Amino acid sequence: MAEDNVARTYYDTSDVDGFYAQAWGGENIHVGIYTDAHEAVAVAARRTVERMAAKAAGALGADRAVLDMGSGYGGAARQLAERYGCRVTALNISEVQNRRNREINIARGLDGLIDVVTGSFHDVPAPDGTFDVVWSQDALCHSGDRPTALREAVRVLRPGGHLVFTDFMSAAGAPAGELSPLTERLAIEEFATLGFYEEQLRTLPLADVSFEDLSDHLQTHYDRLTEEVLSPSPALAASVNATYLDGLRRSLPQVAAACRKGLMVWGIFHATRA
Hints:
Layout: H1 2-12, H2 14-23, H3 41-55, E1 65-69, H4 75-84, E2 87-92, H5 95-107, E3 114-118, E4 131-137, H6 146-155, E5 157-166, E6 169-170, H7 176-186, E7 192-193, H8 194-202, E8 206-213, H9 215-230, H10 234-239, H11 242-260, E9 264-265, E10 267-273
Parallel strand pairs: 1-2, 1-4, 2-3, 4-5, 6-7
Antiparallel strand pairs: 5-10, 6-9, 8-10
Helix pairs in contact: 7-11, 9-11
């Protein structure tokens, strides 16, 4: 799909790679759950994985298989493999991120548990009913065909398996212009809404569908990222060019402001395969 190429180009860009690697925690480049307003982004991001894993804990273990759709640098995959001993297929469109993922897995002795696959979540390269858990963090926003991505997620789930995911969403009726600093930075057209996902999930063979609203943490997350770019570390300053950094200094506070206005929604979806 054309959107796959856009996402690949975005994440393979050196400035984007440097920003995520240096300001966003470097491994788990997803939204965190914070205990205080100044907690390290990487620590909060690991807490999100813990919260999500708790919802699917009955399906995680040494004999279980997990698919991480849009796995980024593989932080969640490693956290799951280390804690539960499960086998994880890390499916991701960016080969730049996938190379780093593989390198870290080898360094930590986890390459035997994590298979990094370059591919699209619109066409998951796995037979029906392969996985005990299908997992995704803040990746479906890049999909130009979210219904297909969700159908693929459910297709490869075993009966009784768990679907657990997060995504950036716009509040119902949110003015598109208020969210443009984030959509433009992520190179996407628009966000889904909570209502969209709830409607889509109702059409699929799923049971016990739930959503835990954690939108307050999205605001904290963008406040923290704003702090990171306003006072960049030497590593961040060396990893991105000055023009890109200036753009982040303008756009990230705007995203945080949109969150404070209640224009964005974020949280954890969970369901089981009927």
